[in-house]
Amino acid sequence: MIGSIPDEIMSIINTVIKATIASTLPDGHCLRRSIAKNHNVDPGWVIKKLKRKCTSMIASNATMKIENNISWYNKIKNIPDRWTNIKSNQPHHCPRSDWGGVNEIQMWAMIAGTQVIVIDKQMSNCTIYLPKGDTIPRRYSLDIITQQHCNWKRNGKPPQYLLYNGVDHYNGIVYKKSTEHTPTRRNNHNSDGIQEYPLCSQLANTATATDETQVKRKDPPVIPTPPQIGENKSVALIEETTNTQPLKKPKIATKLEAAAITTEANMDTADAIGKLRNLKRKQEQQQEQQREKETRDKKEKQTQKKWKQTKISIYTAGKQDNKRKRNIRKSIVEHEQRGKNKRKATE
After folding, report:
1. What is the DSSP code string of 150-189?
2. In this predicted model, what pLDDT tens digit does every residue of 321-344 receive, in sequence order?
3. Residues 277, 284: contact at Cβ < 8 Å?
4. How confident is the model at residue 261 (pLDDT cuts 50, 70, 90)?
5. How far apart are CA 303 and CA 307, in angstroms?
6. What is the Cα–Cα distance from 323 to 317, expressed in whole angstroms?
7. 175 within 8 A of 13, measured Cβ to Cβ
8. CB count, 10 Å around CB of 85?
C-alpha cells in the first residue's frame, strides 16, 4: 500500500538515499512492519525489543523528552505476548488505539542507536528523531537529506528512513542490496528463541544501557579524550594496521593463549575506534554550535544596524519637516509684512 509518490521524494529515495520503498500491510501494525522491513526482520521481533526497552526504562525511572507519561511506557510493556510472534506479510489487525506513532519511532531510534527520519509525502518535508531521546524531534525541508545524507553515512551509522503518507500509514525505505547498509538474514537464535539478525541485534544490545543513562541525566555524557599514539595498546594496534610492514607475531605457547590475546586486541581496537568516533562527533557538535552562535551574532548586529539607520532616518526626516515648517511660517510673516508696507505707502 504505497500510492502515488511525488517526483521530488522519489528522486531523493532513488538517487540520494539509494533505496527502495517497501510496502507494508494496512493492519494497524504498519509502523512496526516498516521498521522490520528496514532491518529485514519480523514485526514481532521489533515489538519484543520495544517491550524490553520500556521495561528497562521503567526500572531505571527514565523517560524520553517526547513522552514523560509513565502510563505510555506501561502500555508498551504490557503489549500481549502474541504480538511478538507477528510475521511479515501475515495480517494481524489491531484497534486504532494500539497503532504505532511518534513515541515508538523515537524509542526505536534509541534502540538502533541511529537517526530515524520520517519523510512525509503529503507535506513534502521530513522529521528527524535523534538516538539520544533527550530532544524533541524537529521538522526540516527535504533539502537536508540531499545535503547531509552522505555526511551522516561517513560520520557513523547511516540513518533509517520511513515513508509516511501524511494520514494513517507508514512504509519502509530499504537500502538497496548494492549498498553496505542492507542487513543479510541469517539464522541466529537468542536465549529466548527469537530469531535475530546481525545488524539489529548489535544495535539493540549496544544502545540499551548507554541511551537510558543519557536520557535519565540532563547533562551530556563525558566523552574521554583518546590517548596519544603509543600510550595505549589499542591505538597502537590501529597504527600498526595501516603500516605496510607485516606485524611481528608474539611467541605463543598454546592455542588458548593465542585466542585470548587476539580477543583482547580486538576489544581494545574497537574501544579505541569508538573513542575516536565519539571525539569526532563532539568536535562536530561544538563546531555546529559555534557556527550557530556566529550566525545569531551576525543577525543581531544586522538588526541593530538597521534599527540605528531607522532612527537616524526618522530624526533626519523630523529635522527636515521642522525646517520646512519654519520656512513656511517665515514666508507667511514676510508676505503679511509686505502687505502692511504696501497699504502704508498708498495712504
Report:
1. HHHHHHSSPPEEEEE-SSS-EEEEEEPTTSTTPPPP---B
2. 888 888 888 888 888 888 888 787
3. no
4. low
5. 6
6. 10
7. no
8. 16
